[in-house]
Amino acid sequence: MEQEIRFPLESEVTLVTSFQDADPMGVIYHGNYFRFFEEARRVLMDKIGYGYLAMQQSGYMWPIIDTRVKYVKAIPFGHQIRITAKLSEWENRLRVDYVIYDANTGQRMSKGYTMQVAVSIEKQEMNFVSPKVFTDKVESWHQNGSV
Q1: Is residue 5 part of a domain?
Q2: Domain residues for 139?
Q3: Which residues are within 8 A (CB) of 88 and not within 5 positions of it... i.e. 6 or more apart?
């Protein structure tokens, strides 16, 4: 039976794109979208107390194994954007879905996801299920809205 999710695990960050993020045409270079996703993911994982240092201390690294980005509208430099991140899978892997919006109009400019798996630092082996230290934090969030 699926557990009711009372408090979805989501985060949001707002930033202004930088000149150095743009290509010669004055729009954000496509590879930089992943930096924006990363910042929203960092905030998301910090919410449950499982940021990258906590991951390492728990004995796991979480490499990205799959990612996708769909470019809806070009983002110019000097533009304020809002990036949302939502944890959509966590039992066997960590999947985060992202949307980038124009912070002023709310128009969607891009969407994508990243998928990560737990790898034991000691054994250098991939886990086929997410470690309990992570799933306990996610379940606690979903039940209480905090860890």
Answers
A1: no
A2: 10-144
A3: 95, 96, 97, 113
Q: Look at the chain and report how many structural domains it folds into.
A: 1
Q: Is residue 3 part of a domain?
A: no
Q: Tell whether 102 is covered by a domain.
A: yes
pLDDT in tens, 26-66: 999 999 999 999 999 999 999 999 999 999 999 999 999 99
Report helix, strand or coil for 27.
strand
CA-to-CA distance for 48 and 146, rounded, in angstroms? 7
Neighbours of 132 (CB within 10 A): 10
Q: Strand, helix or coil at 39? A: helix
> Which residues touch 52 (CB under 8 Å, ≥6 apart)?
42, 45
35 within a domain of the structure (yes/no): yes
CATH of the domain at 29: 3.10.129.10
Task: Provide the strand spans (E) within the chain.
Answer: 10-16, 60-61, 64-71, 80-89, 94-102, 108-116, 119-120
* pTM attached to this predicted model: 0.92
pLDDT band, residue 73 (cuts 50/70/90): very high
